[in-house]
Amino acid sequence: MLKTFVKLVGNARPLADLINNGPLSEDGWFLSWHRKESIDAQGKPIPWMTYPAIEFLSRHLPKNIRVLEYGCGNSTYWWAARAASVVSIEHDPDWYARTRPKLPPHCTLKHISLENEGDYARASLAYDHAFEIVVIDGRDRASCLQHCPQALTDDGIIILDDSWREHYQESIRKLLSKGWRRIEFIGYAPISSARGETSIFYRDGNLLGL
Q1: What GO molecular-function term can you cite, just one (predicted)?
Q2: Angle of helix 2-10 relative to helix 12-21, nearest 10 degrees?
Q3: pTM of the model
Q4: Is the Cβ–Cβ distance between 136 and 70 less than 8 Å?
Q5: Domains along the chain with CATH numbers
């Protein structure tokens, strides 16, 4: 790795190509790192999950989906551009107040105080087969993962970001034991300098055709 970097530094052209024309530039990673914001190469908001997951979802998401999201932000704007409706659960009152006025009318933002295994994680239980997608990218993710399946339609999917974390694995095993399957998207994500993992959980007849 060090030898490769030394060679690149010694030859400015491949290094310039990497910065100006490589995948990190095309995906917008350099811009996101500079601005410390989850955005693409054009400065548009994108979810803070791995680029392979974003690319896959961009290609395969059907129209008129309904989304329940844990953790609001740039991802909410991205989902709003693709969904018939979005319900976002946010625990931080300041972030809630800052984000809510910017959302389009078909997005609903709910503030629920955070308590492990409390009302925040159980928010999905208020819905019965109401969403095609549940996105878990907020807090208390292991508990959210356990409670969310009943909120999904029969063809619905669950998206869990940072799914490599050890304290999520027991909830993941429980979900898989109930007939769910998993596909992992591993790679770089906006802002972050380390590779991450985003997982999609699905069943037969899912809306992505997996």
Answers
A1: methyltransferase activity
A2: 100
A3: 0.89
A4: yes
A5: 41-202 (3.40.50.150)
